[in-house]
Amino acid sequence: MPESTSEIKVPRTIVLVGLMGAGKTCIGKRLAACLGTEFVDADAEIESAAGMSISEIFEVHGESGFRQGERRVIARLLRRPPHVMATGGGAFMNEKTRELIKRRAISVWLRADLDLLVRRTSRRSHRPLLRGRDHREVLGKLMEERHPVYAKADVVVDSADGPPEAMAEQVARAVMDYVRRSGIDGPEEVADDGCILPESDKEMTW
Ligand SMILES: Nc1ncnc2c1ncn2[C@@H]1O[C@H](COP(=O)(O)OP(=O)(O)OP(=O)(O)O)[C@@H](O)[C@H]1O
Ligand SMILES: O=C(O)C1=C[C@@H](O)[C@@H](O)[C@H](O)C1
Ligand SMILES: [Mg+2]
Asked: Binding positions for ATP (predicted)?
């Protein structure tokens, strides 16, 4: 077993899933740094592909349009060499997106309790699903719906407050254990990963 996480070679992209505020972006950046790989935030990639903010995408295309675009962007990112990817909280809930992540990546659920999520999301209001609403009520409902699905991730790590670097190290070790136990190597080849925008879609360009 390598002494240091910088010696770990990850065979697949590590995809962080979990609710808003779980720490996917914050921990993902540190995890990528400690593994010496690229970090991408799927939400930021979606905004750059669409040339709009997530809130604007919701307004223009609705949540369903957002989810389809999100799936295509994630499919494209999963064609890149192994890296660390933070996903938006709803990405893993979409069956097609989840199946693709399961086949091409190593999924890690950053599990967090309600108090922690409420505390962490109270600082900023850029999240369309929370804007102007009671965060505890919304997040509590989302937890009920989403936790059973997030539990399908390959690896589960409890998110807690504390130095993000230590949390990232914990994730790296849990992933390393999973890779050793499962014996997985590179990403599974998927003939049609659904990353192409259908020609029939007249509304979206990405
Ligand atoms: N281990 C930690 N200790 C303390 N604060 C943390 C920790 N991890 C994340 N945070 C803080 O919690 C807030 C939410 O974290 P972050 O933005 O990474 O969550 P997220 O899962 O990416 O959320 P979203 O799905 O909305 O993008 C940020 O302000 C971040 O700095
Ligand atoms: O939890 C969710 O469904 C979302 C989380 C955000 O990261 C964004 O991806 C979007 O606001 C949807
Ligand atoms: Mg984030």
From this structure: 21-26, 127
Nearest protein CA to atom 10 of ligand 2, as residue: 88
Atom of ligand 1 at shortest range from CA of 127: 26
Domain ranges of the chain: 9-180
pLDDT digits (tens, 9 = 90+) for 156-183: 999 999 999 999 999 999 999 999 999 9
Interface ipTM: 0.96
Q: How far is the C-alpha of 10 from the C-alpha of 121, rounded, in Å?
A: 31
Whether 67 is in the pocket of ligand 2, judged by its Cβ within 6 Å, is no
> Is 25 annotated for ligand binding?
yes
Tell the CATH topology of 9-180. Answer: Rossmann fold (3.40.50)
**pTM exceeds 0.80, yes or no:** yes
